[in-house]
TrEMBL record:
Any Pfam family the entry gives: Amidohydro_1
Keyword Zinc tagged: yes
Protein name per the record: Guanine deaminase
Gene Ontology cellular component annotations, sorted alphabetically: cytosol
Organism whose genome encodes this protein: Ridgeia piscesae
């Protein structure tokens, strides 16, 4: 049991940035048990038998925010982050990405590389992540081991690809299906509520229709998430049109395979027609908006406002290494800048995404996309305490605070200018996972 006293900022359904000043937030058994005005603290201490050493007072400029939720990130590709960004997707995959992922057949290398990736995300405040690993079952399981060791909350997918891939990085359909079942059963058998398996057909270009339908059955049987990529680039959309001349559109391919449901996360969704948007909505599929990746590998600009206006669940993803930055602060900034760019060619009725809304996507929105909004995403009694302690005034802070700055200014500066140096503590399910 412990209590934090001070400023809390978070998003709710009705308020993209709620600022709560002078609060006492109590955590017991990993869950938030009270959020009261600070003046109630003596009574709360008595009621719950809380000693002085269990009460932590935040400094004047410090605050707590919910941990970030990265809804789409390739843990294996972290080794390439910040390199190989000169080619569009369909050339980038065989030139840079498949060769790297193939090296994850070496389990020792894979484990070390995954440890770097997961640690880097956690340091940057990502308390929940939805990962792609590689096609290798052993290596994908080592990713789960590392996540458990580090203490993050995560969904992990063994990647499935049985066509349009190089000889050195491809599986047979039967092997892919059997390995997925093995992987899923292994992860579920750990009975660690923080680490869950996710069925992961790479995308309809590299996964046969038959395998996709069988994978949909695996996801159904175990009642687990599905993740893939949808409508990321024009070239990919054209290719899908050629591969599936009878399909109505790209989204229809996944729908017919049975892959779309409230437990599905589709990354990108940059070129959806109105008909596709309607299917994404009616199937309750969630979208992982990956704005850094969209720009870095020249894929396109996702109109998130359109998705939100249509009632679609949207979270943010770093999509490392199509996106070069593993920090969700960067994803928030790119989401805002993408919306600003789109607004240039829209009329005055277009409502841009502001930093508050992008922050909501990075926290509560992501939790909705991953189906964990009853557990994390914001500060609500009964939810688990996944949180970041932020200190804008650390001695090596990358930005400066002035007397004139309000709490909201300070938060906004952290969003635009802050980095992991400002994230001084990270909590997952009430456990402090950083610093160790
Ligand atoms: N950004 C991105 N898009 C993909 N589409 C299929 N595979 C990938 C991948 O690894 N990264
Ligand atoms: Zn991706």
């Amino acid at each position: 049991m412990f209590v934090y006293v001070g400023t809390l900022l978070h998003a709710t359904a009705s308020n993209a940035l709620e600022v709560l000043l002078g609060k006492a937030l109590g955590v017991n058994n990993g869950k938030i048990i009270f959020i009261e005005d600070e003046k109630e603290l003596p009574a709360l201490q008595q009621q719950y038998d809380i000693g002085h050493d269990q009460v932590h007072r935040l400094g004047e400029r410090e605050f707590l925010i919910p941990g970030f939720v990265d809804t789409h990130v390739h843990a294996s590709q972290y080794a390439n982050a910040g390199t190989g960004l000169d080619l569009p997707l369909l050339e980038w995959l065989p030139r840079y990405t498949f060769p790297l992922e193939a090296t994850f057949s070496d389990v020792t290398f894979a484990t070390a590389a995954y440890r770097k990736a997961v640690t880097r995300l956690l340091k940057n405040g990502t308390t929940s992540a939805c990962y792609f690993a590689t096609i290798h079952t052993e290596g994908s399981l080592r990713l789960c081991d590392v996540i458990e060791e580090v203490g993050q909350r995560a969904f992990v997918g063994k990647v499935c690809m049985d066509q349009n891939a190089p000889d050195y990085y491809i599986e047979s359909s039967a092997q892919s299906l059997a390995d997925t079942e093995t992987f899923v059963q292994n992860v579920l058998s750990r009975k660690n509520a923080l680490v869950q398996p996710v069925v992961t057909p790479r995308f309809a270009v590299s996964t046969t229709f038959n395998l996709m339908t069988r994978l949909a059955e695996v996801a159904d049987k175990h009642n687990i998430l599905v993740q893939s990529h949808l409508s990321e680039t024009r070239g990919e959309c054209k290719l899908i049109g050629d591969m599936y001349p009878d399909a109505e559109h790209y989204t229809d391919v996944y729908k017919r395979a049975g892959l779309l449901s409230g437990k599905t996360v589709m990354a990108h969704c940059n070129y959806l027609s109105d008909g596709e948007v309607a299917i994404i909505k009616t199937t309750n599929t969630g979208v992982a908006h990956c704005p850094n990746s969209n720009i870095s590998v020249q894929s396109g600009l996702c109109d998130v406002r359109r998705l939100l206006d249509n009632g679609i669940k949207v979270g943010l993803g770093t999509d490392v290494s199509g996106g070069y930055n593993p920090s969700m602060l960067d994803a928030i900034r790119y989401a805002v800048q993408t919306s600003n760019i789109l607004s240039v060619n829209k009329d005055d009725s277009y409502t841009k995404l502001d930093y508050r809304e992008a922050f909501r996507l990075a926290t509560l929105g992501g939790s909705q996309v991953l189906g964990i909004e009853d557990r994390v995403g914001n500060f609500v009694i009964g939810k688990e305490f996944d949180a970041l302690r932020v200190n804008p005034c650390v001695s090596n802070s990358p930005f400066d605070i002035f007397d004139k700055d309000t709490t909201e200014d300070t938060f906004q500066k952290f969003i635009y200018l802050g980095d992991d140096r400002n994230v001084t503590e990270v909590f997952v399910a009430g456990k402090r996972v950083l610093p160790k």
